[in-house]
Specification:
Strand content: 25-35%
Structural class: mainly beta
Number of strands: 8
Order of helices and strands: EEEEEEEEHH
Number of helices: 2
Radius of gyration: 27 Å
Length: 159
């Protein structure tokens, strides 16, 4: 028995877990209030995979589900407290070596607010107060626009 390579990501109302076992059979997924169990057999070589997770927070085991595909088993765990971010999947801070974060699907949904737009608007409002380009030419010993610069040299044409 081996643990299946696993990735997870957090969404506002659910936590998604994907167990990567191609050509799986005899798939069994168990949801408990604070645990998720997974087992299956890879059909090509009859290797058995087993994963047991003690979850970071409670889930609604009745609304949680899973789906088998040709290359993996995807679980959708309904959070008992929707809208609460999970900083990690497991209760234990030590991460198992077979578990990783699915950064392709990760979205920092906590930061999705009008606050970001408000900060941008504040920045835009400050821009007229920053001065104009003439002020920049007199700072830090800036020279005339005619000054020689190494990347201003004329390059020969390449044939």
């Amino acid at each position: 028995m081996l643990p299946a390579p696993t990735k997870w990501y957090d969404k506002r109302d659910v936590v998604c877990i994907e167990f990567f076992v191609a050509d799986s059979k005899d798939v069994e997924v168990r949801f408990d209030k604070t645990k998720c169990g997974f087992s299956c057999v890879r059909a090509t070589d009859n290797v058995k995979y087993v994963n047991e997770l003690e979850l970071f927070e409670a889930i609604d085991e009745n609304d949680s589900s899973h789906k088998r595909t040709d290359r993996s088993i995807v679980c959708s765990l309904q959070k008992a407290q929707p809208g609460k971010a999970w900083p990690r999947l497991t209760k234990d801070k030590a991460k198992p070596n077979w578990l990783g974060v699915d950064f392709n699907n990760w979205k920092n949904w906590e930061d999705d607010s009008d606050e970001e737009t408000g900060n941008f608007d504040q920045f835009s409002d400050m821009m007229p107060d920053m001065g104009d380009d003439d002020d920049l030419s007199n700072q830090d010993g800036a020279e005339d626009d005619e000054s020689a610069d190494s990347d201003d040299e004329k390059l020969e044409d390449v044939e």
